[in-house]
Write the structure tokens for this entry.
Amino acid sequence: MSLSLNKRALKVIERIISHEREYGVKVHQINGSTVIDAGVEIFGTYELGVEISKICLACLGDVKLSEIEICNISFPKIEVHTNYPIEACIISQMAGWNLKLSNFQANVSGPGKVLARKPKKILEKFQYFEESDEAVLVLETSKIPNSEVVDYLANTCKVSKSNLYIITTSPTSLSGITQICARIVEVAILKLLNMEFPLRNIIYSFGSCPIPYPVPNYLTSSGLANDFIIYAGKVTLMINHNDNDLRNLCSELVSSASSSYGTLLSEELERVGEEFLYKIDPKIFSPSQAQIYSLKTGKVYSAGKVDTNIITKILSKYYGVKT
């Protein structure tokens, strides 16, 4: 059954366009398509990052901001709730489309991926199909797409160019780094998918992650967002499943179960570049702390912790904070 993901996300797009000045975005018409700069040539806001996160989730979840103090330093914190973890986090939010076209590159999220059948394996696994005249995409990139990119995306999504809506954002902006941290639940659900856990047994999920302050370097800033997920992010899952499996599942769900635990992605991406991502243990892309509530027995299992030692190292290296 289709949940009309693109139509849901389009409501947020329309709100952003109608309040262009308040959100501080720049709306472009490129070859007939609507391209909203929400963090490439503008710095953005945390509130705009929340709206982008809702678009990525196809409005199948709640996203809000709060504040948290870690190592005596205050950070904004993103909180994400959803009872559609597959459709919201895997089918729509997951950046399962690495777009490379001429000199343009982007990680593509959002419900428009469904129309492009990206990634095909995931959509076939969950037998999800959708027909829509409009396509909504979020591009994490360092450039505004040109006419060639817009044409390609419209053709791939099988919509007219006038019905293609693109949000562009970069991790060097407040809005861009916020939407990365809003993937805190997604990383947990994706890890369970890779562990071949039956995701339909997850009834409800929520998580939170402090948002690091962005830095000018694209890869470093992206790495910082992922470091905060890995070493300070928290996820809770409510699961209807055999309790015998849940304790071990919880232990495997956290980042400390990875052989690469302790590595700073920000540091390595800055030093080596994107190729480092192909060398690291993929299990590292996990929350620092996980909690599972069993619907069958009412028991709660927990694993992991916020690693203040590593966060202290980040604060010193990138923000000059001595704690």
In short: The mean pLDDT is 96. The chain has 13 helices and twelve strands. The CA atoms of residues 244 and 294 lie 10 Å apart. The domain at 5-319 is CATH 3.30.1030.10 (Methenyltetrahydromethanopterin Cyclohydrolase; Chain A, domain 2).
